[in-house]
Amino acid sequence: MGALEAFLVVAHNRTLAAASTELSLSVSALSRRIQAIENYVGRPLFERLHHELKLTSDGEWLLEQTRPAFEALAQALGDLSESDARSVTLGVPPSFASAWLFPRFGRFKAAHADIDVSFDSSGAPFSKLGVSLDAVIVFAEQVVGDFYARELLPQAAFAVCAPGYMPAGEDVRTLVETRTFLLHDGLPKILPLWLEAMGAGGAQPRHIEYYDSGPMLLAAAESGLGVALTLGDSVRFYPGEGRLEQPYGEAIATPYSYFFVSKQSALRGRALRRFHDWIFAEASAEAQVRASLAL
Q1: Which of 17, 125, 209, 282 is the most exposed place for a label (fewest CB within 10 A)?
Q2: Domain 2-80 classified CATH 1.10.10.10?
Q3: How are the residues of the chain apportioned to helix, strand and coil, as percentages rounded to the nearest 5?
Q4: Structural element, H or E, at residue 58
Q5: What is the bridge-based pairing of β-strands 147-160 and 252-263?
Q6: Beta strands 180-184; 207-211: pairing state
């Protein structure tokens, strides 16, 4: 069982160093466990690459066959364990945690003082579900796979710029023809959706600059380098909100959203179910406030 656990953890971490940290084992001890299971089955389960371990076809087969069984065992133990009934490990993007979740988290702790929640922002969340994570919050257009996935926070798009960057009353087509647009290169659908919704479908901005970082994108807009198209929660996610203005007051629907994702069986756990219900109640309350402000 120890060797199988080592195999599962190495399979989702891809390196012995990361897996040894998760299991609190030395790299040499972990390596011996992997060698033991490979000797038992009589064939290699990993291809040793320079920086990582890659599953062989036999390794992929074994992972597919054994992971559900380990998840079922963990669930059975969790149903009986008092400690598991009071704990949740959640994978979260750092920006989401710092700007949306943590400001509200005190309310969860006040209402559910018996539940301990820990957070993981190290990445690769789906491979950790059912192994080291109970659930994850992910930013995506959709979630594919045999998961429980529920949309948590849909994201609308709008334009922001530094105060005074745009003359008062400037129409959208003039903006497109004369100003620089600042875009996130990971959100390619925002520009055409925004142009269409603003009555400038098919127009091509005079100049576009791309950024691979949300904070850099907004910092460029704050510095007067152009008009940034960003998502509804992004401005609150980063410092400098007071140095930006929203000239048109629009909120354009996009396909992007934050999702709550877990294994299908995970919500049978009492602690995760209570956290799930709380976070969706918070999101629903925020949506109602936004709707009332829009009236």
Answers
A1: 17
A2: yes
A3: 50, 25, 30
A4: helix 57-80
A5: antiparallel
A6: parallel
Q: Which of 20-29, 206-215, 227-236 has the highest mean pLDDT?
A: 206-215
Q: Quick one: tokens of 224?
A: 């007067």
265 DSSP 8-state letter: T
- From CA 276, how far away is CA 260, in angstroms rounded? 8
239, pLDDT greater than 70: no
Q: For residue range 173-218, what is the model confidence (pLDDT) as tens digits?
A: 999 999 999 999 999 999 999 999 999 998 889 999 999 988 899 9
Q: Measuring CA to CA, how many Å separate 167 from each of 16, 173, 178, 182, 248?
A: 57, 13, 12, 18, 12
Query: Is the pTM higher than 0.70?
Result: no
> Environment class of residue 106 by beta-carbon count within 10 Å: exposed (0-12), middle (13-18) or buried (19+)?
exposed
For residue range 37-48, list pLDDT tens digits in order. 999 999 999 998
**Residues counted in the chain:** 295
Rounded to whole angstroms, the Cα distance separating 44 from 213 reads 40
Distance CA 178, CA 170 (A): 11
Residue with tokens 């380990």: 70
User: For residue 213, what are its two tokens?
Assistant: 């970082």
Distances (CA, A) of 234 to 69, 83, 163, 224, 256: 40, 36, 18, 18, 12
Largest CA distance in the chain: 74
Alpha helices per DSSP H over 86-166: 94-96, 102-111, 125-128
The confidence score (pLDDT) of residue 90 equals 95
What's the rounded mean pLDDT across residues 168-177? 89
Ramachandran area for residue 137 (φ above 0: left; ψ -120 to 50: alpha; else beta): beta
Domain positions in the chain: 2-80, 81-295
CATH architecture of 81-295: 3-Layer(aba) Sandwich (3.40)
